[in-house]
């Protein structure tokens, strides 16, 4: 997922001259002080990470920005909520 994120970022910056912001699930887990594997074993931690990711996307989104959320997509409802 991260390599595709890098490709998308380069594409939007170089071809479309857009400002690209990346919100990374892995970085969010670290910022919140969790370990990656333990986060998915504890539903409360996972919920906090998803909340943090959503707030970052909302904060960064704008008409001139492209925001890429680099993370898991196993929760179908969460994908639609962000869309």
How much helicity do the residues have? 55-70%
Structural class: alpha+beta
Number of contiguous helices: 5
How are the strands of the biggest sheet laid out side by side? Answer: 1-2
Mean pLDDT equals: 90
Order of helices and strands: HEHHHEH
In total, the number of strands is 2
Number of individual domains? 1
| Separation, N- and C-terminal Cα atoms | 18 Å
Radius of gyration: 13 Å
Strand content: 5-15%
Low-confidence spans: none
* Largest sheet features: 2 strands, parallel
**Shape summary:** elongated
Assembly context of the chains: single chain
Overview of this structure, please?
By secondary structure, this protein is α+β, with helices and mostly antiparallel strands. It has one domain. It has five helices and two strands. The chain has helices spanning 2-14, 25-31, 36-41, 43-60, 76-82; strands at residues 19-24, 65-70. A two-stranded parallel ribbon has the order 1-2. The longest helix is centred in the middle third of the chain and has 18 residues, at 43-60. The protein is elongated, with a radius of gyration of 13 Å. The two termini are 18 Å apart. The mean pLDDT is 90.
